[in-house]
Write a structure and sequence with these properties.
Elements: H1 2-7, H2 35-45, H3 49-66, H4 74-88, H5 92-109, H6 114-124, H7 127-141, H8 149-161, H9 166-175, H10 181-191
Helix pairs in contact: 2-5, 3-4, 3-5, 3-6, 3-7, 3-8, 4-5, 4-7, 7-8, 7-9
């Protein structure tokens, strides 16, 4: 599994040659890989290995936030690509490919790798970068105008897994409160004319 290898996550069978591979990200792609997978792997080879691991975890967590309601909308996908490009300071084509790998892996393996990727990002990043990631997760989650209850729950879970201080998390949540579905529902009730059931 490309993302797992890229992040250095444990596999079922240890690979003693993993550290000897140049670039690390795409080496070892099998002959059964599709052209798309091979092309993505080649693109990631252009990024230094440590940076590629960081960006892969970053993009995966953005995708995890968007996929919490079991759907990633086109607007959320576009926002993930934009954030990865901007935050990662990489060309748009590479950002699209990194985001696509993360999306595929999240939809196929989400749940089994979620905590492992969060832990990996925590180890690769500073506290400031973890806070920036959570902000980006909120931006992606609210790209379609609403952070659903499921997305909100996953955002809180990601914050816990990244060991972010509760005060910072609450401040960020207040900043995005207007996009939370529960708050939006209360606002609609308040705006409803009296006498309407």
């Amino acid at each position: 599994m490309a993302l797992g290898r890229l992040l250095g996550l444990p596999s079922r069978e240890p690979d003693p040659d993993a550290d000897d591979r140049s670039g690390g990200a795409s080496a070892g792609t099998g002959s059964s890989d599709t052209e798309t997978v091979r092309r993505i792997a080649r693109e990631l080879d252009a990024i230094p290995r440590d940076r590629a691991r960081y960006l892969a975890a970053f993009a995966y967590l953005l995708t995890r936030a968007a996929a919490a309601d079991l759907h990633i909308s086109d607007v959320e996908t576009a926002e993930i690509e934009r954030v990865v490009e901007e935050f990662g300071a990489i060309p748009e084509a590479q950002a699209v490919l990194v985001a696509e790998i993360a999306r595929t892996q999240s939809l196929l393996h989400g749940g089994t790798e979620d905590y492992l990727v969060s832990r990996q990002f925590r180890e690769l990043s500073t506290l400031e970068e973890r806070h920036a990631l959570l902000r980006c997760c909120y931006i992606v989650g609210s790209a379609d105008g609403t952070i659903t209850a499921d997305e909100s729950s996953v955002l809180q879970q990601i914050a816990r897994e990244l060991d972010l201080p509760a005060g910072e998390v609450n401040e960020l949540r207040r900043e995005f409160a207007h996009t939370l579905s529960a708050i939006q529902a209360m606002e609609r009730l308040r705006a409803r004319p009296p006498g309407r059931g």
